[in-house]
Amino acid sequence: MDSKRNVLSGYRVLDCSIAMAGPFAAQRLGDLGADVVKVEPVTGEWQRHVAAGGAGGNRINVSFLSLNRNKRSLAVDLKSPEGKAVLLDLVKSADVFLQNYRPGVAKRLGVDYETLSAINPKLVYCSISGYGESGPYTQRPGQDLLLQGMSGAMLSAGRAGEPPTPAGQYLVDAVTAYTAFEGVLAALLHRERTGEGQLVQVNMLDAITTLQMQELSVFTVAGKPQVRSAEPHAHVYIRAPYGVFATSDGFIVLAFPSLKLLGELIGEPSFLAMNDEVDSWTKRDDIFARTRARLTGKTTAEWLDIFRAADIWAGPVYGYEDLVNDPQVAHNGTFVTYDHPTEGRVTTPGFPIRFSKTPSQVDRGAPLAGEHSRQVLAEAGYGEADIARLIASGAVAQG
After folding, report:
1. What are phi and psi of 201, to 5 degrees?
2. Which CATH code, of 3.40.50.720, 3.40.50.410, 3.40.50.2000, 3.40.50.10540, is assigned to 3-210+332-397?
3. Which H/E stretch holds residue 98?
4. Helix (H) or strand (E) holding 345
5. Which residues belong to the active site?
6. What are the pLDDT digits (tens) for 230-248?
């Protein structure tokens, strides 16, 4: 496959971000063919030293591995004058600069939008923050679970009076990453049309809030409050039954079927005379409890066969092993497997966007810290003697 034919081939991205949201956004750009240079401290980015799930590796832990494929690493000390000068040199020919420093840090480091856009007016500068660039919460930690709690989303599901259950993913980080990815692509399109770069600002609070477009509009426009049920209903704004139910051998997901039809299929006579648009709301707890009691009588597979034959929306509850081995996932090629020079053969989630003429691919796995320092500096015009001097001074590190 010719990588020069990828959608973003020819674009250079300087990724100065850490943790998940920024690196994930930059990885998506790399998946589309951009040359992503991960600019990290000489000791390596924070995520290299903090492994989610305790999943280590040979030289690169799984957290870092999963968020930094299709990147090259330049390890540089931005607090040293020489190190900062190196970054400013790279900005001259870059297309995108991405960072998720806390508000004010970029200015203190001298890598804020005003400074860098003066060097390169065509630069698309993406700044990711927890709560925004200004305001009363700017110094609060922008951590995924904290933002999930603040978003209001947790109180749209579960039992009344019980602690809400967080999402089973790093949801806010992922949504923020995709929002930043979208913003960068839009700004690049604008630049193609006008020749001008611009500042793109994304924050986690706005990202997770605007994701709830429908739910929050039901509240703000229609004035419908969030009222959780006594039963663990899956969403306050969806009629019953709606949620996860135990079967004789596992669990099943059931989504707002016709009550009459459901009653016939599960043997619940009280449902037969109910009105879907009235009783499904006013008798939500009773409907949920009666459905739960009936579904324990058969296996998940048995219920799925029954419900699918009747065109009722139902599905299995997967664990990761089930997901990875699902035939549709295999057909889609959802996961990619490749050989990493230090971690061996690895399998990770792949590319969510399909392109008929410019498909994404793994050109390189996550780099070691500073693995490409010499290469990147040479491309920027530094001679061998200058590169050796920067490495010897500690301003730059090589992997």
Report:
1. -115, 130
2. 3.40.50.10540
3. strand 96-99
4. strand 344-349
5. 173
6. 999 999 999 999 999 999 9
Under CATH, domain 242-322 is a member of which superfamily? formyl-coa transferase, domain 3 (3.30.1540.10)
Two tokens at 13? 């991205």
The domains spanning 3-210+332-397 and 242-322 adopt the same CATH topology: no
Tell me: cis bond preceding 121? Omega within 30 of 0 counts. no
* Per-residue DSSP letter, 48: G
Please state the domain extents for the chain. Answer: 3-210+332-397, 242-322
Contact, 134 vs 220, CB < 8 A?
no
- Report d(CA 274, CA 260) in Å as an integer: 7
Region at 191 (left for phi over 0; alpha for psi -120 to 50; beta for the rest)? alpha
Identify whether the C-beta of residue 67 lies closer than 8 Å to the C-beta of residue 20: yes
pTM for the whole structure: 0.89
DSSP strand pairing (71-76 vs 35-40): parallel
Is 292 in contact with 240 (CB distance < 8 Å)?
no
Give the N- to C-terminal CA distance of the chain in Å, as an integer. 28
CA-to-CA distance for 57 and 70, rounded, in angstroms?
18
The list of the chain residues with pLDDT below 70 reads 1-4
Question: Among residues 13, 4, 24, which one has the least CA distance to residue 187?
Answer: 13
Q: What does the pLDDT look like over 142-196, one tens digit per residue?
A: 999 989 999 999 999 999 999 899 999 999 999 999 999 999 999 999 999 999 9
